Give the backbone structure.
Amino acid sequence: VARWSPLAWMFLGYSLMWLVIVLYVGNLHRRQAVVQRELQALRASLGSEEGEGARAEAERASTR
Amino acid sequence: VDAADRPTLGERIPDWLVWLAVVASMYLGFLYAPPEATMGDAQRIMYFHVAAAWNAFLAFGVVLVASVQYLRTGRPGWSRLAYASAEVGVLFTTVTIVGGSVWARAVWNTWWTWDPRLTTTLILWFIFLGFLVVRGTAEGDVGRQRLAAVIGIVGACVVPIVYMSDQWWVGLHPTVITLSGFQMPGRMVVALVYSFFAFTLFYLWLLGRRLRTIAQAEELAALRERLRP
């Protein structure tokens, strides 16, 4: 088995650590976009007075 | 503006500042800090590895405070904070384990060994994975949210054990930070301390975004529940 230089191990280490970070941040952005889109769509469909009331109630529940 | 849309502290930190800080920490670790005498460049993995580990501890400390507060007050905001912080803590613990494993392969010639520090870190990681599973399936279920809070408190109590493990038990893991300070040359200390700063900024940035997503997801679920015929 060829022995890697310390520099090669350093690059492998940083590459894998960055891979973990980038995968997580990418996934976080995706989740954020999906939730935001669905929330906006639902809010848009709640134009009626009843919908506004429901929204305010849901908002109160989520911020308590 | 809806409550769930209000920017959190972490969201006020600009993206460019966070990425610049993290990239600058790589610059200091790669070019400013001198190479270690025996390990050479492989030792530079430490600047991300240790900074990620310390921020995982910070994240789990926030879980502890938020979980205690949630059990005390019952306010869902604390549970959300614990959930968001635990997720970021698990990310940083994963980064710590991955970087440490590559470093171990370079220096110890093995990817993994059951050293006290490594073993306790793995236990910590599993406890918080358990927390995420329980809290992630606890939407609207106060009982499960309380159970998650208890797991979070137990997990956070493992943090001091992880920190002290290499002093309590005989192991291979090097100790670079002891109660008496940093055990390394000055330029390495500068690079490491800066990495702590950059990762703390990164932690706050991630926490803010995750908190917002959790709050919006809960608002969405509450709206759907309200509109169900």
